[in-house]
Specification:
It comes from Nakamurella flava. The protein has 13 helices and 9 strands. Helix 10 runs antiparallel to helix 11. By secondary structure, it is an alpha+beta fold.
């Protein structure tokens, strides 16, 4: 019987049950040899009662243990014990098989979503990227997860994503017994090709992760059905409803590409998905927000790239390294006051025009004065001539000489 304090293979002492799933139970345990806390997945009796299943499970466990990636919960050990968990299909007790794994401090995404309902686009993109890197490590070794779902994505307190249960789904799929509970748990995220009975490929993991992303962004699953068969058929033939309008277009397009029905048209594997996420991040930085036709300012731009750490508030209008699509002209400053204008400023056309207009008036005044003086000179000469009794040509000569002297001294 499984209970706290039970010692498996004289090494792993069970301390507390963590979870119960379709394939068995997960317990926290103490590794008495290495002095570390581990997680032990103990398989149900109907699985361990089949020798062929146990052989396949053992082989998959060894392959999974070869994965060494920070985004994958490590597999430490596999064992079989004489401890009888429960009666097998034949009614007799059978020894149990177990898998010893890294105990991840955190909680599954399936526990986070009911509490927060939706993840932000930036957080969803981060979960996708971390999971995509872990899938890339597995796909590079020709290992397909086959059961990507929120329950197999563990979130640590610092936001790290750990993928669990690699390879287990393949063995479970090949088991000769019916596991209705487990199928119900995975039918919501199953790929169309898996639902149609075809072999899973790396792109199948991408589809399942796309369904997870849809649930994170929309707060609901893309398909609902009353039966497992109905749910599977929805993945085969139905298109998911559009994501909410507040999901940025590049992210919505990414998720749509992950959920394409034809695996040949999806991201081929984890590496291709990560490349697509990188393009979305660059698009989010370089592309201005879409205009809505409203006169009010648009909401703050959502950034999908990881924001750099800043030591102070960001100044509005500071250079960010990305050129905006349009430039708003700066407001025209009023001209400086006359006293502040530089000496080398524009030519003062009005002042020059006034001076030009003043010159003809000055000449007209000078001629008038000259003419008056000439008249006065003639009058004076006549008086002098009379007084001196100058007659004849001598008087006329004096008058002309005086007039010439006056004219010659004019302007």
């Amino acid at each position: 019987m499984i209970a706290p304090g039970v010692l498996l293979s004289d090494r792993y002492r069970l301390t507390a049950r963590i979870a119960v799933g379709g394939m068995g139970e997960v317990w926290a345990a103490q590794d008495t040899r290495l002095g570390r806390t581990v997680a032990v997945k103990i398989l149900r009796a109907e699985f361990t009662g089949d020798p062929e299943f146990v052989d396949r499970f053992r082989a998959e466990a060894r392959m999974t243990a070869s994965l060494n990636h920070p985004g994958i919960a490590a597999v430490y050990d596999y064992g079989e014990t004489d401890l009888a968990v429960a009666a097998g299909p034949d009614g007799r007790p059978h020894p149990t098989a177990y898998l010893v794994m890294e105990l991840v401090a955190g909680e599954p995404l399936s526990a986070v979503l009911p509490r927060v309902r939706r993840l932000s686009p930036a957080r969803t993109l981060d979960v996708l990227e971390q999971t995509g890197r872990a899938l890339h490590a597995a796909h590079a070794r020709h290992l397909v997860h086959r059961d990507v779902k929120p329950g197999n994505l563990l979130i640590t307190p610092n936001g790290q994503v750990k993928v669990t249960d690699f390879g287990i789904a393949k063995v479970a799929h090949q088991a000769p017994v019916t596991r209705t509970g487990m199928v119900m748990g995975t039918a919501h995220y199953i790929s169309p090709e898996q639902a149609a009975g075809e072999e899973a490929v790396p792109a199948s993991d991408i589809y399942s992760l796309g369904v997870v992303a849809y649930e994170c962004l929309a707060g609901r699953l893309p398909f609902l059905a009353d039966t497992t068969v109905g749910m599977a058929m929805a993945h085969v033939r139905d298109e998911p409803p559009p994501l909410p309008s507040d999901v940025p277009a590049p992210i919505a397009a990414l998720v749509a590409h992950m959920m394409v029905k034809d695996p040949q048209q999806r991201f081929a594997d984890g590496a291709a998905l990560c490349a697509g996420i990188a393009r979305v991040r660059s698009t989010a930085v370089a592309t201005p927000p879409r205009t809505t036709g409203r006169s009010t300012p648009p909401p703050a731009t959502r950034t999908f790239a990881r924001p750099p750490a800043t030591s102070g508030p960001v100044r509005v209008g500071a250079t960010t390294g990305a050129r905006p699509a349009t430039r708003t002209p700066a407001p025209v400053a009023p001209p400086p006051p006359a006293a502040a204008r530089p000496a080398a400023g524009p030519t003062r056309v009005p002042a020059r025009t006034d001076a030009t207009r003043a010159r003809p008036a000055s000449r007209h005044t000078a001629l008038s004065v000259l003419l008056a003086l000439l008249v006065l000179a003639v009058a004076v000469a006549v008086v002098l001539a009379v007084d001196l009794r100058l007659v004849g040509s001598a008087a006329i000569d004096q008058v002309q000489s005086f007039a010439r002297s006056v004219v010659g001294s004019g302007p």
